[in-house]
Amino acid sequence: MLLLENMNLSCSFNETTGQPVSIKRGDFVIPLASFAFDFGCNEHMVNELLEYESMLEFRTWVLPSIRPTGKSFNCTPSSVTSDQEHVIVTYELASVRVKVSYSLCETNLRVDMELFNKGQQSLYLNACAFLLALPTVDLTFDYPANAPIGHFSPKNLAERVPVESGLINFTTHAALPGGDLDLVFIDPVEKWGCGVYRESDRSVFVYNAGLEMDLKPGQTVSIGSLYLLPVEPGKNPYLAVRNLVASLGYQPCTGGITDGVMYSCHPSGTMDTHFPLKDDLYQYAEYLPRLKEMGIDHVWLLPVFEHDAGGVYHSTDQSIIDPRYGGEEGCKYYCDKAHDLGMTILFDYVPHGPAPDFPIARDNPEWPSKRRDGSLQDEWECVSMDYNHPGYQEYTSELVHDHVDRFGVDGARIDCAMGGLSNWRPYADNRPSGNSVLAGVHITEAIREGFLRGGKRSFILPENFNPLPNYYHCTDLFYSMNLYRAFVDLEGLLHTDPAAFAEGLTDYLERESWLTPENYHKMRFLGNHDTVSWVWQSRRAVDCYGTEGAKALFAMISLIDGVPMIYQGDEDPSILGRDGESLTPFFKTLFTVRKQFIPRGSNRTDYIHTGTPVMAFKRVCADVPSDQYQTEGDSNIWVLINFSDAPCSVPDGVSGELLFDSAGESETLRPYSYRILRCKE
Questions:
Q1: How far apart are CA 413 and CA 260, in angstroms?
Q2: Is there a contact between 609 and 630 (Cβ–Cβ < 8 Å)?
Q3: What strands, in cross-sheet order, belong to the sheet with 28-31?
């Protein structure tokens, strides 16, 4: 038996097979069944543990699947070597040498994999999977801050039918009888799929990296890192992940704009009504005072750049403001009026690329990504730009800087910030699949740099559906699509079982709050231009939850941590050409209450489980002694929200001075109302 040991961990390995046998932390021992790997090589999975799946026709949002075959891992290592901190297991396959390295770190065991082409021909690689099996199904697992949002038991799963994460997932948490095990996977280059399945009496955890490349003779490639993090009983396993990620150097950026209330809109109207208004920015500027009065601080304009009949996200040239929206002068007028009102403006940049015959793509043939045959990659009838190309990065950064100079634009929502399609003619030594996560980070950095060059504070909102550590350093607001997916998972419970609805949200948000750094800020929403028109619910919040249910949820996203965003028309159905209650007075009150009472200088939200339809959480102020509170927003605050159509009691353990009740002061919480209390310290 081989041992790796330090002050915190003891890891044992079979000295013949190199297989990890157990990880021990304190008195907590986790037995391991096996570590296996599989990868696509020349259109065939080398170990046939997973089904082969070509990614050549994947769209940007599609993740590699987890499709187990039921076959066993039968690779015999050619060598097993060790020192005080490493065990290295080498496998000699027909054309590939695989090196699996186990490294003992302070509180975790790190697993890395390296592929070396020892043959004479290039090898077409497609996907690379890490598979860890535990010799038990007596556990539960979950994907914190991801979908699906539940807790799952392998023993309740059909054999080899995985539960796959809905979004790129870097953390899987397993609760074992004697403690917890976190699996953390971070790939700096490509996106990946994640899933857990049962195979007989074993639980198999899989991370499947979306590797795509031609590995040349004598060339080596490394694919991500898997961290096994045992957590002793009584310790918080989600906070352990946060601490691990911080120890790896992933820290949120600071100094940017991270507070306020956001409104997303377009002068022509909304996407779900097919842009019927046809206003220009001169006309639409007249709506800004109404937004300011309602409590809006930031306006995210959907693209107003020159575009063809394909729509606002099919820009011909993002340097030009489309004449139908008032052109350059109209845009300057709109931005100046917003600034006069103390509001900021975010442009919606679309870096994935224009139609192939438009000048940016046509005149820069090395910027668009290519298929294996050299033809243009395309998506939405547009080319897919290579975000890793320094020429395209500089073009994008300068485009942003120019908009700062011309219009005073304050920030950016970045469309398709998770990267583009694989580029089989990549710049320099990038691999084709590098035009994914790595490229998404690069284009986010480039856009952020454009604002910093112009002397603006960073205000960057990349359309990155997953709170990946890779993006921490260049993201001011995380695009909280994961919370929206939680709403989708729970939608049917609001009216059938409101207590289960409140518990599901509490459980999800509590895990998210533990997993992500306190100062990593999030944009919260019930719908955006995509979700109201063509994806997931394809409806407005009031249609999904009813008007009163939607109000309760709007209150929730406005009073937890983060920046609430409402989409054009949420405040007034007449904007959509519909009848119904105007919610403008509701939002005005809600946002006033938010600014008056919610603590400033802290992003911390603590949740309690009430077992009732009432959701309860505490907004915790920054580290300010109670005798130094300066304003009403300097004290810890309880927020209660009733998700039921019946009155509910105040939960046990919640008390304090009543500051606000949306339904008027009463002994009980009235249906769908929210209440704010100053905590008794």
A1: 15
A2: no
A3: 2-5, 9-13, 20-25, 28-31
Could you give the CA distance from residue 36 to residue 113 in angstroms, rounded to a whole number? Answer: 11
Residues 568, 533: contact at Cβ < 8 Å? no
The residue behind tokens 């559906």 is 465
Nearest alpha-carbon partner for 443 in 421, 414, 423, 464: 414
The confidence score (pLDDT) of residue 632 equals: 53
Q: Is 67 helix (H, G, I), strand (E, B) or coil?
A: coil
Peptide bond into 230 cis (omega under 30): no
Reference 563, options 615, 603, 601; nearest CA is 603
CB atoms within 10 A of CB 538: 14
Helices (H), 540-622: 541-559, 584-597
What's the Cα-to-Cα distance from 530 to each of 386, 481, 492, 611, rounded to whole Å? 24, 11, 21, 34
Residue at 468 is within a domain? no
- Residue 549 pLDDT greater than 50, yes or no: yes
Helices (H), 170-259: 237-247
Cα end-to-end distance, the chain, whole Å: 54
Which tokens in the block code for residue 441? 């980070």
- Using CA atoms, how far apart are residues 360 and 365, in angstroms rounded to an integer? 9
Whether 554 is covered by a domain: the verdict is: no
Residue with tokens 């008794």: 680
106, pLDDT greater than 50:
yes
Strands 378-379 and 382-383: antiparallel
CB 125 within 8 A of CB 40: yes
Q: Specify the 3-state DSSP secondary structure of 586.
A: helix
Q: Assess if residue 184 is contained within a domain.
A: yes
Beta-bridge partners for 186: 225
Tell me the per-residue pLDDT of 504-532, one tens digit each, with 9 for 90 and over: 999 999 999 999 998 899 999 999 999 99
Number of domains in the chain: 1
| 130: containing domain | 2-247
Q: What is the CATH number of the domain that holds 130?
A: 2.70.98.30
Residue 629, judged by CB atoms within 10 A of its CB (0-12, 13-18, 19+), counts as middle
Contact 275, 269 (CB under 8 A): yes
Q: How many helices (H) and strands (E) does the chain have?
A: 12, 34
Other CB atoms within 10 A of residue 55 CB = 21
The pLDDT of residue 126 is 97
Give the per-residue pLDDT at 365.
Answer: 96
Residue 96 domain flag: yes
What does the pLDDT read at residue 616? Answer: 98
Q: How far apart are CA 646 and CA 395, in angstroms?
A: 57
Would you say 654 and 640 are in contact if contact means Cβ atoms under 8 Å apart?
A: yes
CB 173 within 8 A of CB 144: yes
DSSP string, 506-551: HHHHHHHHHHS-TT--EEEES--TTTTTTSTT-S-HHHHHHHHHHH
Q: What is the pLDDT of residues 219-250, one digit of tens each?
A: 999 999 999 999 999 999 999 999 999 999 99
> Dihedrals φ, ψ of 378, to 5°?
-145, 150
How many other C-beta atoms are found inside a 10 Å radius of the C-beta of residue 582? Answer: 12
- pLDDT at residue 621 in the model: 86
Collapsed DSSP state (helix, strand, coil) of residue 379: strand
Closest C-alpha among 350, 280, 365 to residue 317: 350
Three-class SS of 161-183: CCEECCCCCCEEEEEECCEEEEE
Q: Cα–Cα distance between 470 and 609 in angstroms, integer?
A: 32
CA dihedral 407, 411, 417, 423 (to 10 degrees): 40
495 phi and psi angles, rounded to 5 deg: -100, -20
